[in-house]
Amino acid sequence: MSLIVIPDDAPPVMSLSDAITQLRDCEHRVYSTLPANAPELVARIADADAVINIRASTRFTADVLAGCPRLRLISIWGTGTDHVDLEAAKARGIAVTNTPAVSAVAVAEHTLSLIFAVAKQTVNVDQAVRGGEWPRAMVQQLHGKTLGVIGTGAIGREVMRLGAGIGMNVISWSFNQRRDPARVTLDDLFRRGDVVSVHVRQSPETLGMIRADHFAMMKPGAIFINTARGRIVVENDLVEALRSKRFAGAGLDVFETEPLPSDSPLRLLPNVVLTPHAAGITREATEAGLAMAIDNVLAFRAGTPVHVVN
User: Quick check: is 277 catalytic?
Assistant: First the structure.
């Protein structure tokens, strides 16, 4: 019998959603804890033909896939696929799907909120007021400044739209550079940007692509934002640039290691605003994404697969 397994609904999102009613006519199993290790993951999904993956911490390695001979589909809730061995899946005839663009508005809004929080020093000013101070911080105005967007997929384009909406001058860079006055080289973007915001997908091509050389190019008053993936940036280089106040500050939703370790130097830097990889988590985006992850399974079983990434 066909079986759908959700091996990692922890903390629970799928089991509490309206979307799960789409599975009422399908044999399915939901686990409300994370698998402790690869053998436990295999034990949970070994008899499934389809898996709906909730958490990126669940890693579908070649060894895990080898232990699941019935598996034909991994449906990821989200866009990132770096936790799945796509080549191993393809070699075993396992399709991998994701939920593209479903969180684009949510992530773009979060990006804008981080830009404002850093530019207006919202966290530091709030703490000062709570401590009895009445600061008169000379904060930045964003209107008329230059927003540099790295990656012009669905999220990057939405960030560009929002930036233009508050009066920023928008420039961009992507791997597929087309003729457009707004497109510049990556070095030029770092030199010109008053805000530099990262929106490329993590891949072998993008791991560590942003490093000390780029931070050295930034304006003293510039702001760096990352709501993409932590490993796209060499985190130690970013920490050193922030410690030395090479530029004004950063807003980060993603990190090399997640959750952020207790001894991370980023926790101690006053010129950084931190959020817990939560940019895409809104009620609206969550429901839409979970529904799409289920739709991807149903479409695959119907012989009309969509959103296949491998």
Answer: yes
240 is a catalytic site residue: no
Identify the active-site residue in 157, 192, 231, 277.
Answer: 277
- Tell me what the pLDDT averaged over the chain comes to: 96
How do strand 73-76 and strand 95-97 relate by DSSP bridges?
Answer: parallel
- Rounded to whole angstroms, the Cα distance separating 245 from 263 reads 20
Question: Which residue stretches of 120-185 are H helix?
Answer: 122-130, 154-165
Domains held by the chain: number: 2
223 and 76 within one domain = no
Tokens of 300: 């695959």
Q: Could you tell me the CATH number of the domain that includes residue 43?
A: 3.40.50.720
Q: Average the pLDDT over 149-169 and give the result.
A: 97
Distances (CA, A) of 143 to 121, 177, 196, 247, 248: 16, 26, 15, 19, 17
Enclosing domain of residue 148: 104-274
